[in-house]
Amino acid sequence: MSHAYPDKLTIEPLKEPPNATMSVPGSKSITNRALILAAMAGMGECELCGALYSDDTEVMITCLKALGHRVDCDWSAGKLVLHTEEVPVGTNRADLFVGNSGTTMRFLAALVALGHGRFRLDGVQRMRERPIEDLLKALRQLGVKAQSEKGNGCPPVIIEANGLCGGRAAIKGDLSSQFLSGLLMAATQARSEVVLEVEGPLVSAPYVSMTVAMLRQWGRSVEVVDDNRFRIPGNQTGGTWHYTIEPDASAASYWWAAAAITDGKVRVEGLTIQSIQGDTRFVELLEEMGCTVTRGETGITVRGDALRGIDVDMNDISDTVMTLAAVACFAEGPTTIRNVAHIRHKETDRLAALATELRRVGADVDEFADGLTITPRPLHGAEIETYNDHRMAMSMALIGLKVPGIVIKNPGCVAKTYPAFFTDLEWLRSV
């Protein structure tokens, strides 16, 4: 299952508004959480259905294999079978390469703390620039020897583990919710109760809610004392033999946005308001901008209409900031996106990258510390730098649905979470 892309890809505008039903791949966030939970279950075998095939999930699987698990992959069917060890970490030494997968780095740093031995986690150059000290500090409070190899608070990370003792730990939540999610999962197998307290604001809070929901689906107990405190009993065991992964709501946002930009109608199959993914709230923003949203029992449909700018806090759904920025270019009046300073620490500085590339196609953009104001102007074609960021490539490609001459550099970077994105974009043109 490979998708070969050229160095540059020209996006052809749609000749008429689409009327389409789209299927999107499984959620990356859920797939990688499910892999961790399956590895912790110790039940011998766990089947994951609807799993995402992507760079991020492949590096997670490779690392779990290095930790002693066997994973059988049937990507054509979206099925993974994890044959688990009785313990979550079946080796006492491993050198793990996570590429640029933040979930893999953060979740595995917590998981290997349950082991006994020395573990090194490293990634690509950009991963070596992404802060992780807040997670390491919390692990140290729970009795783990965890440090940044270079002493700069970034990977490579060295974990010298003798199991997770339990106790109380404070963790900052203003850079990434993945730190807390990784700790929540690992804490269920600490030797005694763990209490986690979040210091300051927690970004992307719905992803923590997703983690708590999944833990409970897997039979693990987590008490949410309040928005900033969690109590997790230790020595928990068990899991599930079978788990179905939802379609990816972040990926779905591109097709809902396509409907908004082109005055089309697009339904994404398999996502409903019962989803555990916070990014389904993206359709509420499109609704506020003037779209019509239909929420059905088996999917969500967006119908585009005249768009108006909005002023919105996107802290809780920050993975869709770039998607909304593309839509904002076609609205009447400015759109302001606030409270997302933490996305400067993603695959690239997403605020700076967005400002640069939107200006390149003619939009008026005011960049500030924690967001952007986008004022629509007549747009024109341009070659778009993607900064090896999958969301930059997919979001800016949406502008090409209306504006001739949009050329995406390094389109293959979408393999991180959505390898078939440009194939699906071409299919949208045919319906």
Structural description of this entry:
The mean pLDDT is 96. The two termini are 24 Å apart. The protein has helices at 28-41, 55-66, 102-111, 133-141, 178-187, 205-217, 249-262, 282-289, 321-328, 350-360, 390-399, 421-430, and strands at 8-11, 19-22, 46-49, 70-74, 79-83, 93-97, 116-122, 145-148, 157-162, 167-172, 194-199, 223-226, 229-232, 242-244, 265-269, 292-295, 299-303, 311-313, 335-338, 364-368, 371-375, 382-384, 406-409. The protein has two domains: 8-25 and 247-430, Alpha-beta prism (UDP-n-acetylglucosamine1-carboxyvinyl-transferase, Chain), CATH 3.65.10; 28-230, Enolpyruvate transferase domain (UDP-n-acetylglucosamine1-carboxyvinyl-transferase, Chain, Alpha-beta prism), CATH 3.65.10.10. It is globular, with a radius of gyration of 21 Å. The chain is 30% helix and 24% strand. Helix 3 packs parallel to helix 5 (178-187). The longest helix is centred in the first third of the chain and has 14 residues, at 28-41. Strand 6, helix 3 (102-111) and strand 7 (116-122) form a beta-alpha-beta unit. It is of the alpha/beta class and 431 residues long. The strands form six sheets. It has a four-stranded mixed sheet with strand order 2-15-17-16, with helices on one face. Strands 4-5-3-14 form a four-stranded mixed sheet, with helices on one face. A four-stranded mixed sheet has the order 6-7-9-8. The protein has twelve helices and 23 strands.
